[in-house]
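Why predict the complex rather than its parts? Because the way molecules touch one another can change local conformation, and only a joint prediction can capture that. The input here totals 911 residues.
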Amino acid sequence: MNKKLVRGALRLMIALQFTLVLNGCWERKELNEVAFVLGIGIDKAETGYTVSMQVVIPSAISSQSNGGGGGTGVPVVVYKFTVPTFYDAQRMLNLDSSRTSYLGHIRVLVIGEELARSGVGEILDVFKRSREARMDFYVMVARDTTASDVLNVLTPMDKLPANKLFSSLDNSYKDSAKTVAVTLDDFIENLLAEGEHPVLTGVEVMGDPKEGGDKSNVERTMPKARLEYHTVAVFKKDKLIGWLNEGETIGYNYINDKVTSHSGAIAGEDGKPIVIEAIQASTKRKVKIIDGEPHIYLDVKTLCNIEEVQSTENLESESTIKRLEKETEERIIERMQNTVEQVTNRFNVDIMGFGQSIYHASPKAWTKLQQKKGDDYLKSLPIHFSASVVINRVGLTDNSFLEKIKE
Amino acid sequence: MKSSETGTLSNRLKTNIDQLNGLLGGSSDVVIKELQIEENTNISLIYIDGLVDTQVLHNSILYSLQEHIPYEQLGKLEPEQKIEIIKKQILIAGDLTVIVDYSQFVHELLSGSVMLLLDGTSTTLRIGLPGWEDRNVGEPSSQSVVRGPMEGFTENLRTNTALVRRKIKDSHLWLETVQIGRVTQTSVSIMYLSNIANKELVQEVKRRLNKIDTDSILESGYIEEFIQETVFTPFPTVYNSDRPDTIAAGILEGKVAIIVDGTPFVLLVPTFFVAFFQSAEDYYQRADIGTLLRLVRFISFFITLLAPSLYVAITTYHQEMIPTNLVISLAAQRESVPFPAFVEALIMEMTYEILREAGVRIPKNIGQAISIVGTLVIGQAAVAAGFISSAMVIIVSLTAISSFVIPETGMSIAARMIRFVLIALAGFIGLYGILFGIFIIVLHLSSLRSFGMPYMSPLGPYNSKDLKDSIFRFPWPFLKTRPAENKTQNLFRQSTSSDEESTQ
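Output of the joint prediction:
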């Protein structure tokens, strides 16, 4: 009896194994059957949107390709559709392309300036909803141009333009602090967060965008069309309202503890520059409620190296180093102050997230502040800056050899 | 014929010889030498040609029988007394026993003894004079080491037991021999340390050996399959090795070795999963190297098991998991490949298995052909022709090489078999399928027993102390105890301050 039961159970289990086959390879996609969309550009059209999709042509990328394209031709193709919704664009791609689009490898999402000014919220839902797209790609705004033009430009170093946009934003953000790297996830989070507004880096097409799509663009030492990051877009809710210049962006990054490394020149005694680079920087933000009023305290700590010296100042003396440290501290504070001022005066939008810090520190104080001043709280918010700079190394030589150059 | 094998020998020499000739069908390798050493003393020497040392037979036995006979005495004596004289005065040296039983007589004859029959008595003298052609003790072929003893077991049971005894010179090293196989009458010995090995374990080994009822045992693999607990499992639950040091180490841990005549592969029970990732060399090299090598073996095991299936699953279901640049490069390689990744993986794995099998079976002098064809077919032509992507070639070669890292072939064969199932699961439902497969494997492994001991210990029933010498290899001064999983009588191998060891 028991044996019969065991045998029955075994048979049942074997039968159940076959159900594995029933799903019929659901969702199976071979690598050579999908079109990897690396960059998506969205512009405002008269009705709906103009969606551009930069799709990689694998055989043109790989050095070793098995009888494929053989490394000739352009590495990407851009599909452009004017559609009422983003999803329609994906479906229209099927009419045009031999492969199904795959959004799992999007590197950048470029938003045209016009669309950004009229609001981006509606178009972003599809990326959050789609199970294919990962939310870790960077979002940027095409300044003074359309997203489609940006995606059209071929780039020389990185064969894939979307990859170039991704990595150069990543590097510029880490090395110079002159841009902000914002992933879609961060962007949406900032849209939702209380007391904080989002920013996005702006990408510009330098030169003629019409030339950029031609293969000859990458066959020159000085490409006719180039993609560069210069400014940072300030959003109020989901609408673009203005741009921060580079100096203001650095201040913004210091305030928000996003500086990895950044360099700047301080004048020596003879007025010639000494370049100091922050190799480590961290900003502590504290909120104190004093007499019912929230105060923001920002304390920057940096570790610096001297990287370039054109001045003949004596770097061996401690007083010089102390002076340089002090001036650097002042410079950093000045940058932060300038940013806060400019943002407050020009946009009156809390991109620094002070409101959110207050909300986190004391929700009550935040509600009170909101009731009392509404969205204008930034103007009268007391902010206290402090910085401490330590110059760690001066490089391989002490004083510059400039003084010893013979007459 | 069977009936004539029982009973005792006859008094008459002629009857005995006739009966024997009838029994053996007059086989031409049976040599019957009739001698008349004295007027009324007829003796016969019977042996199987090739199994006895004829040199010694001629030089010493025949010589003694002719030269040292006390003729005056012998003639007057009864046959029984003559045997006594021959045994005690003439054939002094050597391994002599008296045999009366007929079946024993036949068995000893066929095992390579010289039988001395005397007319007029049923008492027979057995002269042990084994002298067949034997392979010398050579380097163990299956588990080679860089540092460590270079001697391996041979096909001769006696040599093998001697090799173990040379390592363990202890009165508690007990050896028991039984004959298994109705026709082959193969000698099977068990060896264990009587004061360490668990008594129940020894009883259980004996019980299972005695239960075997078969006509033949030609290799220890027969025994392994008869005594293992679970028949339907890809995982070996009995360890085998042709290295005397490995077997001696096992015996010292309280295990029981089963040595089968005619094969260099000695079995060791009970066996645990982790044992298959240990090599004798782990203990001869420094401890840190030993630990590192074990880690490498575990990693190789997982590569063998999982690499192709992970590749199939990730490239067909989870492309978002691959870094962008890599996925584009993989896509470029697959550009002209006509098959799905799943089929591609199966083709390549099958090709590799075929090549491997061919490499093992092919006569040595044309082996090179296989390697050239194999390299060209797999490595070059298939990729150039565009029906295999080069990434797949890398995966398959990595899998193949990893499978050789596991010291015991039984475990690597298990991994190779399961690999195909996992590839199929990956091809149908991706990573979920692999996880599903691994889940079942782990459940199965946990349910296995080797002579009543949990197969996965010390991981299964977790025992942190035993991890010292399973996944890691601690330096010898820290390895004070024997593995608890063997349930030994005496746990301590080194004296500890708190627990005084009671040695013999």
